[in-house]
Amino acid sequence: MDLFEYQGKQYFARFGIPVSAGDIADDVPTAVAVAERVGYPVVVKAQVQVGGRGKAGGVKLATNADEVREHAGTILGLDIKGHVVKRLWIEHASDIAKEYYASFTLDRGAKKHLGMLSAQGGVEIEQVAEENPDALARIAIDPVGGLSEDAARKWVQTARLDPEATEGAVAILLQLYSCYVDGDCDLAEINPLILTPEGKVHALDAKVTLDDNASFRHPEWEKFRGLEVLDPRDALARSKGLQYIGLDGTVGIIANGAGLAMSTCDIVNQVGGEPANFLDIGGGASADVMANALEVINTDDKVRSIFINIFGGITKGEEVANGIVQALGRVDIKSPIVIRLDGTNADEGRAILKEHESDRLISKSTMLEAAKTAVELAQ
Ligand code: GDP
Ligand code: MN
Question: CB of 8 closer than 6 A to ligand 1?
Fold first, then answer.
């Protein structure tokens, strides 16, 4: 889940990272009220999940209420790279001596965390990496050992931050690392990380992506969800705890295991169809899970047929078949269903399905046959 800047800053603050005092505003009068409260000068900032807001006119300084009114009025409703601004973040403006860049993310290839630090912040980091790769100091961090204070200090020196920024930067890097690891982020980025004329180091922007797989241990993340822009199908699937991704085709897909679900999408494509979704129901295929999955697919008006592709591993074929039959009793399905059931006790499972076969419920013994039938039915 991607956070908005203001949410990212709230998250940073929990880990002790210094951020400016501020608040959100969804209309002009609130923006002025917040500005009066945090004290002038303030920065009026568009809250959209896209970078380069500054260049697009979405970040403006204001020294009095009139300027806040003017900027808030222009920025609200502004279209920044296809994202319309509905919310502002108003914070007390900082004096900037230097703009740096700092981030942590996962380097899957190296099986380590990757820290990136640069004395050339403020601009898009891709640009720095391309035009001046030496200006980007990277470190690989062993996830077991973590980031030590010594390593952080050496890293700051390698990145050639100004000497007066060293201690502040080391402290923030350690806090940012703890935010990234203990806070279960996929990405924690500060750009710009600033040095003030008084020698303080401070986060002026926040880009945070939370690792959704860790949401079970973060009930507090719920408060970040409200503003997410979700497809209604995705929203329903999420509320039912399903791994669902909406696509644009006409063949609804239910499979167990992400790998099989992807293969199912592929094979539907191969035989000339278009998947309406990716849906992985996970290990089991209980009646509950199956009914939920069918319900989500049923809300998709584009769906013309449903392809259920299950390979029984630990879950036995007859349990899967019973789950499907019971689910069909609970949900009134609009489209014909094609099932391929294989794996442990497939014969027992198929025998159960056979008793319920009709032109609305067709069982096929191979994935390819089932895909062809589902695609034909969708045409
Ligand atoms: P982005 O363009 O979407 O990355 O938005 P940022 O939050 O990074 O802001 C863009 C730029 O606006 C920063 O690089 C700063 O140069 C400037 N800026 C943001 N906040 C302040 C502030 O408090 N004071 C000053 N002087 N400039 C700021
Ligand atoms: Mn930025």
Answer: no
